[in-house]
Amino acid sequence: GAGKSTLLKLLAGIHVPASGRLLTPRGLRVSLLSLQLGFSPKLSGRDNAIMGAIFLGKTKSEAEERLPAIIAYSELEGWIDEPLKTYSTGMRARLGFAVAMEMAPDILLVDEVLGVGDQSFRIKSTSSMKQKMKAGQTAVFVSHNLQQVADICSRVCWMDRGRVRMLGTPSDVVEAYSAARR
Length: 182
Fold this sequence. Notes:
Oligomer: single chain
Helix content: 40-55%
Number of strands: 5
Number of helices: 7
Largest sheet: 3 strands, parallel
Strand order of the largest sheet: 1-2-3
Structural class: alpha/beta
């Protein structure tokens, strides 16, 4: 509906704009955390994690070196060698989030993935996002969850029908958005 996922796919270079242009620096490593994107259901979680790291510009040996940290963060030790098609949505999100956190892309694009999984993993992933952003990680987070937007973001853009309606602090934009929806 609102175009959140399409916007992230444009930023990630997966789609090209139908009109206008999008300028991105060459060599920029972007990771899109979106459910159903980038993983092969036939491959194991282990193989998908390695492929995800390679897509983010790591060599196979670098990906394999970081694999234990990815597995530990995802908390999927007992499932990592099972085909991804046997994973729940939350398990897939854990794996994707763990790969992105460990690989530290230049820009992290997050498509509401923080809202999946059990409560302890949501707390863990939200905390990790905040720590990464405090350390200088650039992230674009799209969501309809206003509380998460206000809690995680330092700057918020409210878009409506493809146009920027407001850009500013989380409290100002969330307040204006909420007032407009009443």
